[in-house]
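Thread: Putative replication protein, structure

OP (GT): Posting the sequence first so everyone is looking at the same thing. Length is 351 residues per the record. Can we get the structure tokens written out before standup tomorrow? I want them in the notebook alongside the other entries.
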Amino acid sequence: MIDWLTMVVPCKHQTPIDGGKVLCVDANGELSWESKKKRRVEGSFGGSIGVATAAHEGPDPCTHLWIDGNPAKWFQGHNLWGTDDLHGLAVATIEALVEQLGLTPTDEDRAAWAEGRIRLTRVDCTESFHLRSRREVLAWLASAEQTAHLANRGRGQLMKGSTLYFGKNSRRWSLKLYSKGQEIRAKGHGQDAVLALPHAVEWADKTLRAELTLRGMELQRLNLAYVGQWSDKDSPGEGVTLELLRSRLEGMTMTTTANLPADVLDSMRPAFAMAYHRWESGSDLRAILCEATFYKFKTSGCTSIDIATVVPRKSPTWCRCSRPLKRSAAIPDWAVGRTCITNHDDSAYVG
């Protein structure tokens, strides 16, 4: 699904749009610089999207809008699921924003939207996978931090125990894998309404989400810097996001893990589970633990594996990451038609 869009949109308007200014004044009281803030436009469910006039100078009418935000959250109040139709989503978002702002775009502007002449500077694509529980998702992430390697990005960095980043600060593209169940519970994430829906929470708790962020230079390289390049007349382009994500995930390799079933790991004491993950990633527990602790774990922690045998770091057995993440999680049947954006028909984009 399309999760985040930053775009420059043709839309003539008379008065520059912003949300105020940030000023820097030096020690002598002189203005050093100023920067315009985005105006926040609230959605039906509490989310907001930033809007500002793009590159406006002189007395001529403003010609473009700069739009930045998460349309799925803006329309639905959550981003558990959404649409892969970037063109349809972009146009629906623009139409809703200009209506709220009281703008009157020209026929030429609307023709440009329909033709996809909307420049993109950031796109976030996501795909969801279901495991058995939130604890299993978190265990997968902890294991992947130690064992996963992504082409052109190397090993990932696990943040707060629930989000694994690859290339977090890249100016081109980055990938992150995270627990959706953990995210919706995070303070200030703006999806509180979902927590009151048991079926939605259950769906999120099983979800391991992959999110690919494409920035301006990478969008240019991929010839995807304009909305129209994501689709053609015969196809709204739903397969593009899946292809982009899978091409990155197929570049990820990870050592074979999960020698113990998730239910066994869940039942282990935290200290034993931590030691098991260290052993699984190739650490020599005999060298790390004191003798008494080592034998306590060996005899009572888990007797179905031999922790005295070190998992080899060299020449490991590799498997494609896409194997454990084999099948995308579909939108649940009970959610279809309930403020859920799923196709190119504008009437489906409801807030």
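GT: Both are above now. Quick notes for whoever picks this up: The chain has two domains: 2-254+321-348, 257-315. DSSP finds twelve helices and 15 strands in the chain.
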